[in-house]
Amino acid sequence: MRYLPLTEADRRSMLEAIGVPSVDELFRDVPEAARLSGPIKGLSNHMGELEVDRALSAMAGKNLPAGSVPSFLGAGAYRHHIPATVDHLVQRGEFLTAYTPYQPEVSQGTLQVLFEFQTQVSLLTGMDVANASMYDGATACAEAVMMANRVTRRKRAVLSGGLHPHYRDTTTTDARFIGFETVVMPPAPTGGEDLLAEVDGDTSCVVVQNPDVFGHVRDYTELGRACQAKGALLIVVVTEAVSLGLLTPPGEMGADIVAAEGQSLGNALNFGGPYVGLFAVKEKLVRQMPGRLCGQTVDADGRRGFVLTLSTREQHIRREKATSNICTNSGLCALAFSIHLSLLGEEGFTRLAEINHAKAVQLADKLAGVKGVEIVNGSFFNEFTVKLPKPAAEVVEALAQRGILGGVPVSRLFGGGLDDLLIVAATETNTESDMDAFATALAEVL
Amino acid sequence: MSMNNQGRPTGIQNTDSAVPETVTGNRGLQIEEPLIFEQDSAGRCGVDLPEVPTVGSRLGAVKPRGRIGLPGLAEPQVVRHYTRLSQKNYAIDSGLYPLGSCTMKHNPRLNEKMARLPGFADVHPLQPESTVQGALELMAELGRWLATLTGMAAVTLAPAAGAHGEMCGIMAIRSAHDAKGDKGRTKILVPESAHGTNPATAAACGYAVEAIPATEDGRVDLEALKAKLGPDVAGLMLTNPNTCGLFERDIITIAEAVHAAGAYFYCDGANFNAIVGRVRPADLGIDVMHINLHKTFSTPHGGGGPGSGPVVFAESLAPFVPVPYVVQDKDGAFRLVEQAGDGPAFGRMKAFHGQMGMFVRALAYMMSHGADGLRQVANDAVLNANYLLARLQDVMTPSFDGPCMHECLFDDRFLKGTGVTTLDIAKALIDEGFHPMTMYFPLVVHGALLIEPTETESKASLDQFVTALRALAERAKSGDVAYFQGAPRLTPRRRLDETAAARKPVLRWTPAVEPETVAAE
Ligand SMILES: Cc1ncc(COP(=O)(O)O)c(C=O)c1O
Q: What is the pLDDT of residues A105-149, one digit of tens each?
């Protein structure tokens, strides 16, 4: 076994040092009835690299990589070009094979990365402070709601109909088991919704998304003010981090908490995970935050250094009184996010956002020219909704047969209903000929 | 160019080894690195992007965003920045990382390669099912391995890490009680030795947490447990092997008592590495258990994550497996069930279908070992830990009698009266070139030192660790307190002031002078 360094001779001499005749003796506390006498049946035995590579490559070969065809899927996961540098640096063993920086003297690399990551996320969202990552955008959203419940000592969350259904469901799952109320607004693919009417004296927070799941760009400044007046927090969700290069940041709209998905920067699609949840708040809420926080300090020689801090919020110190049960987070995905953003810088990030928007405008114009297709959105960033004369799920399947990944049917996200709506995204990776191929194929299958 | 030896000294003239102060603050291969924000030059960029196509804006009425404040660096600067930072980290790739309870084993690079195949890495989670049959097959196959290794009836791959898996398991337990109309169960029992995530999870799910004491031999006190079981108890959360590195000998009796009281048995499977291939948790009476793929199945810890925390369910809880999950139709096609509907399943717990990138790595790891190799993993992990216990027990104080499982626990009695603490030992180990063990956990012994070597350490590596730790224990007993309190001395930073960090938190960089914002306020 290539991963096991002990030789038979090592094992014998170690057993001797321990003073037992065999390794079985070390398992003597296991109840006899449950001991297995040999390898478990029904599973293959060990294999070499070549054999494993062959077997898994065969499985991978049965999938259609999004990059191999014109692809226009978004709805919470976006295909962007990731500079080669990102994955190279992420694979440095010193980052890849370390764990949570519990021993800061030998973890300054990870810690400085986290400090920079927290700063980048704060800047992007326009918030005061960000944590060192959550699992993903959806769990960040649910944690934001629970945090709002703690902060306001209220138990009623209002969820916009423009919130990504997976984020909504992650939050309502928690609501069911943890015991708080959620007011779920119906999906509003074409227009606004009266969230304010739902805010009362028991409301802990209003959760909105920008751009919303249908792609509409929203201004929540008014809503933020109204929430404040009623003592509720405004939680703004962002599923496409690149949009923050162009749109008013949630902090400027009065968000108290931002819960976002960071996958777009540095992280591949990966069939849905691992991704990286971004979590940012206003200064005064810091001590109610979930998750790890890295802070600046000095060492014994007075030099600047970094440590994990404010851990009295966390499970390993506070146990049942912790702000969250999260322990392992999305460290390496946060690193990838941070490297990609460092490469882009101010100029690159802004331009990337502009290109994304322009590509989506081009695509919308091309699709609007297809007979029977109607663009639903008045505004959008890099994603919008189209209305089709046929069920979107069928159209998407027919497009896939023609080698085009043509978007996400709204019915798939919402579990039925709104069958004729399709969510379509464009990024810098889409060429004009991709778009033409899409429009042509769409005309054929409608 | 070839190296010219002409006129160049090739011998060594000066053997003075005192460490000099350098002008730069750098120390040879250890290079000081400023924050990226301190390397900013406006207009510099590490990517080349095309011109923005000229089209009208459809952003609507939002005001354009002002300057963000991101620094501009060219690619070589970025590469150097992160390379230098990486060199300030200790990692499994560099040496022994015996962080108890975390299973810091070797991370095979084949797994990285497999996870990066475009057929896995470049697949969108919402592509039509017909275009992702291989991805769904991989999930089904991983689920089959996990179910077979644990003897369980059902699996969910959705949870993002161990703590998330705990949440999932406790939600399933609540669902099962709810389905029976049993609303009176308000408590979860958790041993004192449990990891912090256990009580945090139970409390987050709305349960009162009741602690169960440990016995003299480091196991759950069965009589105390029985006394607490009753119609108000929803379940027991027990780690096995437990966080003292011991197998819960009475586990079958414990399970029977829990079931007799109408409660369910949750097992924290973070320590599955000790028993994989040797015991199936289902045969111990466990109803539900999470598995940390980032521990037992070697997906890299990444400086804090990502992880993956699949949960396995016995028949008793199988109907409550949350969405999404993969099913295979009669014609062999794989399908994703994404909506909970009206059935007993709950969910969802996160966006999309779970940590796919981790699934690929874990399956590559399992297939590489196979059923035979995984059993050897447990054997060697347990052998290595017991070897350390045997070699250290005369100079340190083991908290409990052996044999231990995959990790061995010491407390600080051997330091009594020396003025040296567990923390000091940890910091001195750093100077010897080792990552410290887990300190001050579990809470059931004083000044805990929890050592988990894993099966991927060689005997030579263990022997060197033993030599270092024995020498430190002797040194502590000799009264050399100053040596310990000054440690570490050979690291990029020496001890850091955590009190100052928490008192006045600085959680982000801020420019000396705020950059002008274009956005009108
Ligand atoms: C015993 C035990 N339980 C639970 C956990 C939580 O797992 P995770 O960090 O993956 O959430 C850990 C690990 O940190 C652990 O050691």
A: 999 999 999 999 999 999 999 999 999 999 999 999 999 999 999
Burial B66-77 (b: 16+ CB within 10 A, else e): bebbbbbbebeb
Residues A293 and A309 sit within 8 Å (Cβ to Cβ): yes
Nearest CA in chain B to A283: B507
Cβ-proximal residues to A29 (8 Å cutoff; 6+ apart), any chain: B246, B247, B248, B249, B403
- Do the domains B112-366 and B378-493 sit in the same CATH topology, yes or no? no
| Domain covering B378-493, topology | Aspartate Aminotransferase, domain 1 (3.90.1150)
| Mean of all residue pLDDT scores within chain A | 97
Cis before B442? omega within 30: yes
The set of protein residues with a Cβ atom below 6 angstroms from ligand 1 is A 327-328; B 101, 161-163, 195, 197, 239, 243, 268, 270, 292, 307, 309
Distances (CA, A) of B173 to B167, B182, B257, B262, B470: 10, 11, 16, 11, 46
Report the CATH architecture of A66-82+346-445.
Alpha-Beta Complex (3.90)
Q: How many CA atoms lie within 13 A of B489 on its CB side?
A: 7
Best residue of A328, A330, A347 to probe chain B, by most B CBs closer than 10 Å: A328
pLDDT of A212 above 90: yes
Cβ separation of A320 and B200 shorter than 8 Å?
Answer: yes
| Percent of chain A topping pLDDT 70 | 100
CB contact, 8 Å: A171 with chain B? no
8 A C-beta contact, residue A182 and residue A157: yes
Share of chain A above pLDDT 90, in %: 95
